[in-house]
Amino acid sequence: MANKIINTRVNNIYQVDDNTLLFKLRNPSEELMLILEAGKRIHLTSYSLEKPTFPPAFCMALRKHLKGGLLVNIWQHEFEREVVLQFRTGGGEFKLFLELFSDGNIILVNGENKIVQALRYKRMKDRAILRGEIFRHPPPSGYNPRRVEKQAFIDSIRLGDKEIVRVLARSFGVGGVYAEEILLRCGIDKKTLCKELEAGQIAKIYDCLQELISKITSGHLEPNIIFDENGEPIDVTPLKLERYKGLRRQEYTSFNEALDEFYTRKMLLEKSKLHEEIEKIKQEIGRLERVAADQEKVIKETEKELEKCRKIGDLIYQHSGQLQVLIGKILESEGNVIHKISERKKQGLEPYTFFESIDANRQVVNINIDGNHFSLYINKSIFENAANFYEKAKNLKRKLDGAKIAYKETLKKIEELKAKLEEIQALDKAKPTIISEELKKRKIKAKKWFEKFRWFISSDGYLVVAGKDATTNEVLIKKYTKQGDIVFHADIVGSPFVVIKTEGKTPSEQCLREAAEFAAAYSRAWREGFAAVDVYWVSPEQLSKTGHAGEYVPHGAFVVQGKRNWVRNTPLRIAIGAMYDEENNEMAFIGGPVDAVKAKTKAYVIITPGDVDGKNLSAQILRKIAEKIPKEQREKLLKEPIEKITTLIPFNKGRLLDLDALP
Known about the structure:
- This protein has 663 residues and is α+β, with helices and mostly antiparallel strands.
- It folds into five domains: 2-129, ibrinogen binding protein from staphylococcus aureus domain (ibrinogen binding protein from staphylococcus aureus fold, Roll), CATH 2.30.310.10; 150-271, Orthogonal Bundle (Helicase, Ruva Protein, domain 3), CATH 1.10.8; 298-403, no CATH class; 449-571, no CATH class; 574-661, no CATH class.
- A nine-stranded antiparallel sheet has the order 4-3-2-1-5-6-7-8-9. The chain has a six-stranded antiparallel sheet with strand order 18-19-21-20-22-25, with helices on both faces.
């Protein structure tokens, strides 16, 4: 990775989430996307990531100091989980420290070694991550295994009373996974105490450790991602590890590619959160099943109580005369009435056999008829007592009806959740496939050679390519322009070279006019506010880097020899439009000569030189184009970054031409 990103320029910086930065880097031949995630990773990515509309303050500060700067070096600090990126900018030298341990941090330090900005500010006992403080590395995690000699390694371990796996992981900074791997390869139980190891075993551990380090540092890697039984990625490693033997693994050509695939998959899996949803649904089903069980119990108890009240009401009516006699006897004030009733009960005489007891305080007599126990108020009539039980039965019936409705609703919810659970579980099983499809969508396609330049396809199908600056002008002419191609240039200092790739054919006059219009629009004439400019075209053989005697030909410029073919008074205008990209299911913006854009889409606008800044003009263009496309595509269009339009606007300024006012 280092050889790819060193001497690249920082085009932009994005903060993808709370912990993750995305650096857009550019060298003369390609654009690279570098991901830095505090506490976890650093690698190049080939996937598109969602970027926030409004960058956080930390991201803005990094842009302020590093945008446009040159990434001149990158290295790992000692054997620690800390990566240093060194930048050279117009504002001086900067270092960006990426800490990959614990929760991690990203810290920007200036040439005086003072902290300029940090993702997380904190004060610790051994150092302070605060703005303006001198930057200090965290204390070493232990010995550097790349520097320790074998005998020193043996001596440092043999007298310890801790488990060997802990000592390797912590004191030698190899981490738990690789500590266990080394011991597994050496056939040593990871829980063995250091003092129980023989010198030969420790020497074997040392040799195995050095072998792993040598493989990694020499680039003899076997990068792979390991998957669990559900097809979800569980680890990414630069080497094949014994500890993962038996699990499915996917091999990659580079560790960077494996890291990119692993973390992008993990990010998409975390976003889907199907496991969490499954657990939530299971918990809700469990809760509702408990509610349903309680409701069922209440229904059964209420039904039983309801039946009892009705039966008692009926019994009171059936035995009303006898019960009236019994209550009449109780209400007699002569002698010991209760004793007399009890005596007659013993004799088996009705209605005295119905009598159980009396509660004088409550004015209640307790009755038992054929095993049905109930109470009667002696200060109320028999029929009033019966009515009480019937009224209670009515109330219980209302309660029962409500309970049954609630019970049915609970069962319905349970069934709905079970159906949803089955659906999500099926989706979860298919998730690896879904994630793979999403990865395909997000994969940034390798750019074709001409996509490094400005380009368009003419209305009759020719590829037309233009330089963006002196460097790309030089590359376009020297590397990509072939015999038979046609080269255009506006008759003004500060014009791009524009090349029609003829592929041995003869372009139409229409194609020549479009190429001339392209050269005019992106020339300095736009910045100066011209309405038109002359443009000429020549063959590649007429271009030379050799000037007249003593004449200096600057980088990006060429001397034109021989006859020039003129396209006079070429208007300065450019069309910007939008079209639906079916392959990627997204809206794409296109820019170029009016006729070339018009041939591909009806949703376009025309801009000319003006003083509206690029940001505001882009917003105007987006609104106008949105009005011209189908409603179902409009939502996709409005989600596209407005910067895609801004890059098409010459010199980042202009004005909208009123198409309705055109003849």
